[in-house]
Please model this.
Amino acid sequence: MPLGTVAILGLGNQGRAHALNLRDSGAKVIVGARVGQQAEARALALGFEVFPLADAAARAETVAVLLPDEVTPNVWPDVAGALQPQTTVVFAHGFNLLYRALAFPAKADVVLVSPTGPGRVLRTVYEQGDGLPAYLAVHQDGSGGAWAAAEGYATLLGCARARLWRTSVREETEVDLFGEQTVLCGGMNELVTAAWETLVERGFSPEIAYLECVHQLKYLADLLHERGVSAMRAGISGTACYGDVTRGPRVINAESRRQMQAMLAEIQSGDFAREWLAEAEAGRPHLDVALARAAAHPMEAARRRALGLPDPPA
Model:
């Protein structure tokens, strides 16, 4: 299904990859950016025509909303007012579709095309001739052809080279948030930090602790990605495998599972979304303090020493 002119609103992690992949697949791509923001300069450097957000939306038959979740509702009244009546509107994550009451033209198709990986990976595998699987969902089928529109966008993005999974906006959003919080970001970062601290507190070298508990994670994650859990275990030593199956459940135990269930309940009830949006509207006071504390954690200095990296500028 032809996309017409595609306006990419936002040129962050996902936006940059979408814009480049779509252009390389033959689509006409323009970029909408907030005036004076870094995205505007990045888009111009990449050779895209750049317009203010609403102007870009008005010029396009397909509008991909790839702005941060917390930014989109604030700019949406202007963007929505500029949309053509039969625009296809694409989101890469369902957060604002599920938790915020965004208005769309009655005849518009509003779809979700969510690649299963970060933007930099989406771009890299595309350049290698491959693609990431993607979740597809339809929020509003104004034309009767919304599924085809989602598939057309995903195909030019390179995701049909892998596989396209039909789902719902609710399922994608809730599973995505849960995965980020329990494993991919929250769980992983807390686990490696706690393991590093445990070793260092007992007198082990901070650099050796980093190499063992953080640096090596990539190689085991790659093995897990390639083979799955059972076959991954066949690729490690018997000693490591025995420690895996007998000690792993002591780390992820009944209490861990109760906390996961509680976190999922907070996502499904909307409590997490309300909490995050309140934090964003207040200027991110708790988030920014937590990020600064993490950046100053001694594990970061141990990483630089272990890998022979320079200290950051003062």
